[in-house]
Amino acid sequence: MTAKKVLIVTGDAVEALEVYYPYFRCLEEGFDVDIAAPHKKKLNTVIHDFEDWETYTEKKGYMIDSNMTFEQVDPNDYDALIIPGGRAPEHIRMHDDLPGIVSHFFIADKPIAVMCHGSLVLTTIADVVEGRKMTAYHACRPEVESIGAEYMDEMNYVDDNLISGHAWPDLPSIMKEFVKQVKGTTVNS
């Protein structure tokens, strides 16, 4: 049996936990995982924490390798997609190849996990996200609503193949559902 293939799309300033946790979780399941970014390089991650501030704080995190560029991605080769948050989404969404990659997973009804600020990537593909329900970091609510999606004020939410989460503390629930969907054992509405 061929291993399932998962694509992670990100860039510099990705939230460390939101890229490392899904990456390692997918490897644990025996999935083949590629990390695509604007450039094939060591990516800088950031650590967002919820300290005694009205918003999150940011510190430099570990490095992680992207093993391919967005231009090299053929989304037909993948069974599922992960879009981590951090500050990377606000920048990578402007890359010419990314909207087509992400749209493919919505149109083909493949599992998609979107965490936190990862929802910003979806602002370039409003036509395929309109009418969907999802959650995201609360500061991203205006962008979620601007693309015609319904913002769900919950820590994680499943709308068929779209699995979304508020922030990195929600990764266990997000990844539990994501793995089930990639394996084909359940799809929740």
TrEMBL record:
Superkingdom = Bacteria
Q: Which residues form the DJ-1/PfpI domain?
A: 4-181
Q: Which GO terms describe its biological process?
A: proteolysis
Q: Does the keyword Protease apply?
A: yes
TM segment ranges: none
Task: List, alphabetically, the Pfam families matched.
Answer: DJ-1_PfpI (PF01965)
Q: Which UniProt keywords apply?
A: Hydrolase, Protease
Q: Which Gene3D superfamilies match?
A: 3.40.50.880
Q: InterPro entries in the record, alphabetically?
A: C56_PfpI-like, Class_I_gatase-like, DJ-1/PfpI
Q: Name one GO molecular function term.
A: peptidase activity
The entry's family comment says: Belongs to the peptidase C56 family.
Return the NCBIfam families for the record: PfpI
Q: Which PANTHER family match?
A: DJ-1 PROTEIN, DJ-1_THIJ_PFPI FAMILY PROTEIN
Name of the protein: DJ-1/PfpI/YhbO family deglycase/protease
